[in-house]
Amino acid sequence: MGEVYLPGATTIGITCKDGTILSSEKRVSYGHMVMSKSGKKTFKMTDYIGAACAGLVADMQVLIRQVSAYAKLYELDHNRQIMVRSAAKAMSVILFQTRYFPYITQTIVGGVDDEGPSIYVLDPLGSVIRDKYAAVGSGAEIAMGVLETSYKDGLSLEEGRDLIVRAMKSALARDAASGNGIDLLIISKDGAKEESILL
To answer: Is 0.85 topped by the overall pTM?
Structure first.
């Protein structure tokens, strides 16, 4: 029997007073092998909704493509943007339908809509959990330690960005499967803005 290779990653999402921030690191690793130092695991699905993933990059890409197409069809049918909750539930249905041959990815869906900023955490089987902040992946425990001590309601986007960067740097320093930089997706009522930090 061969060795089992599991992908590692650190992915974080938080809600702020004026928006949502999603982030992931750039390293793509399988077991002890670093496959890439410039992987992208943070995705924009609509102008106001994004997702950040930890797991197999191919599974992330397929899942994001499917939900993005669903969101576009919803917008064309209803002449309005899909809600963040609805996008998360659409992803949940896809994950649950494939539960016997699951997508190997933990996902945080976040964005801003009429109900304000929100994030939802999804596991590979489609569970949907709303939260104010979350971390998934192999570096989640380390990142969560920073989030738990410093997160508070009413953070500005700038304060939230600083908190996420601190939490990511902490995880990247201790988790060998995570590293090489941070991708951020900052979503506000003005739209989504991507940022990349090389470490």
So the answer is: yes
